[in-house]
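pasting input
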Amino acid sequence: MVIATTRPETLLGDSAVAVHPEDARYTHLVGKFVDLPLCGRRIPIVADDYVDPEFGTGCVKITPAHDFNDYEVGKRHDLEIINILTKQASINDEAPEAYRGLDRFEARKQIVADIEALGLLEKIEPHKLKVPRGDRSGVIIEPYLTHQWYVAVQSLADPAIKAVENGDIEFVPKNWENTYFAWMRNIQDWCISRQLWWGHRIPAWYDEDDKVYVGTDEASVRAAHGLGDDIILRQDEDVLDTWFSSALWTFSTLGWPDETEFFDKFHPTNVLVTGFDIIFFWVARMIMMTLKFTGQIPFKKVYITGLVRDENGQKMSKSKGNILDPIDLIDGISIEDLLAKRTADMMQPQLKQKIEKATKASFPDGIAAYGTDALRFTFYSLASTGRDIKFDLGRTEGYRNFCNKIWNAARYVMMNMEDKSVSDAAHHAPHFSPADRWIISRFEGTAKQIEECMESYRFDIAAQTLQEFVWNEYCDWYVELSKPVLWDDEANPEAAAAARFVLLSILEKSLRLMHPFMPYITEEVWQRIAPLLGITGDSIMLQPFPVPNADNRDEQAEESIEWIKGVIVGIRNIRGEMDISPAKTIKVFLRSDNQADKQRLDEARVFLQKLAKLESIDWLEPGATAPTAATQLHGQLEILVPMAGLIDVAAEQARLDKEIGKLEGGIKAVGGKLGNAKFVDNAPDAVVAKEREKLAEMESAVVALRTKREELAALA
RNA sequence: AGGCGCGUAGCUCAGUUGGUUAGAGCGCUACCUUGACAUGGUAGAGGUCACCAGUUCGAAUCUGGUCGUGCCUACCA
């Protein structure tokens, strides 16, 4: 019979040849015996489904002691299990004398040579296969039979499955429950023996007849089994699986079973935060063990984070040398130090050059210092529901800049408080400007959103919401809107004081809102500004987290400021596209059929003048002739920047064409929808109404812009 | 091989129960040192939402398939 093998040396441990039960070529041989070359052994021919008759010759050598599948075959056919390897993977004394003591690879060569010499070698051909290697050593692994300890796990798994099924324990995001169930429902008995030199030795002792005794220590074993000092006991060499010990963590750390004061108070805990790669190892086993020993679930929620990978999407690991130490992102590190760190104490020194090359490519100048808050904020921002987090230094840099922004905003606030003081909200409220009421309202919206994000564990959205509020609303608009009021302090001291109060109090509240996300800078700034509000306290950590209060919402103020922003952006757009220097003050005309626009102008005038750098703002009554101008629309409002000396007619035509083109695209899309009877009939009324409104707005805008375009054409 | 994910702007990622002319940050282009901030400001460019088919008035979103990619588990005589 011809067999193939990639490990010829295992022939020494063969105890059968297997064929498929329905393989007509061999059925007549099943139950008979063959002579195993080199060993002088006669081994049976067995029939087993495991054999693929299509593969090779359809005959498989069976080595139960050194192959997982062969082991199963061996059990089915009650085959002899012959271990031919020592722990050092050389050939042991079970093999014929000629091979004893040879390293497994030496033995392989020798056996091939000997088989050939006997004329039994059919052929040698290359064959691709995956060889299992030790993670750390890189050494090829041989299956090898040993005695180890197992936990019969089914009776532990059943209640642990139920606890998640009935919602006592919830995974966030929920889809991870599938992973948990998949593992738990196919759970195998748990091998708890580990061949390591550290850890808890397995509490099992053997006498000289290999009879086993289990107990907490040797003395108690002797006592329990009446073993005198004359009997020699040796403890199992192996240690317990680390996950076995750590699965006791949830309750043993709370004093269970001796001191149960903390246990009674804190167990079960609320949330376990961990990575998905730990679901099998820790989460499942903590649940099983805690239910078993305490009868309680260990925690109510399991928040699963993504796994942080390197910039190429690779899992970080010390042996790969692609680890990023958080400290190095916080304090920064030179390329030399980073290389030294990544190549120190390597288990596979041959990888050194490769790691150095990759590190130099990724961090040619080392890593800059980004600070703890920026790093922390980066992780929040990346904590979405996906399972991978590719680490991007660019984002950390962006958040470092955000920290800088917060710092500078605080400087602005403090600078404006020099020699000034504020009173309380009740005193200032009557003097609040629309801008003051707007930012107060926006803060409420933000606080509300943060509350929702925290409840749903969407820290990424929370991070973005905070950054948007602080940077794009507080800094970009409110601080700017406060300037005309503060600089004109003498004209309206009450309004200025009110603005100072709002600047300060919103900053203070924002710091508290951000504190869990950026603990250091918020503390640092809070220490400086809280006293200005008369707030005393040792630390922002001990201050209340802002609670949303819907009373602070102010729709009117939000509309007012949206209007002002729209007008300013319109003017800036003309400036930007018409290449008007930001240093140049310009005249602006406004015109609208809508009286509300005129009223808004009255309260907005000072803000517009400063933020858009205007020389004058003139209101044109409907029908009044306007000067030739560059135009922007904001709703029904026409924003006109007179062209004389400023604007190139052709450029303005191009600008209008671009705008008209955009609107026409929109009209086509929305008009198409509304022209479809099925859409109008089937879509919810609110959706249809919204589309109609959009269409009407776009149509009137395009008419206005076309008129402007024609006026310009006449001029040219 | 089996299981589970993922493919959205140059890059890293959001996009709730299908109803936007698809968003953010970084990067890019132009202009700007104005009295918080150049680690900044203003304006702008950039996407057939991997591909194909289907369901629907309507799909980045739901279904099926294809391709690509990642992880987990097992492992081929």
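fyi The mean pLDDT of chain A is 88.
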